[in-house]
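Today's session is about reading a structure prediction critically. Students often jump straight to the picture, but the first step is always the sequence itself: look for stretches that repeat, for charged clusters, for runs of hydrophobic residues. Only then move on to the predicted structure, which in these notes is written as discrete structure tokens rather than atom positions. Here is the chain we will use throughout the hour.
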Amino acid sequence: MATKLTLYMDDTLIDEAKRYAKGEGISLSQMVSQFFKAVVEPKQTAYQPSAKVRSLTGILASDVDLAQVYGDYLEEKYR
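Below is the predicted structure for this chain, in token form.
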């Protein structure tokens, strides 16, 4: 059962939170609910990556040696 909750916050914070929630593709109520669940049940809540993180899945080739790529980058940077 869902129950209405009234919160009082700074207008700017509310606007920023609404923009963030919209960017994540969820409502502000869903975002607040997820936050409360994470606080109350931290060990029972499974990690769910954000929509932005999910959109990045698979953009790198799986056979890339990241240590080698980073090493190459550092060599080039400090020449």
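Discussion point for the tutorial: The CA atoms of residues 68 and 74 lie 10 Å apart.
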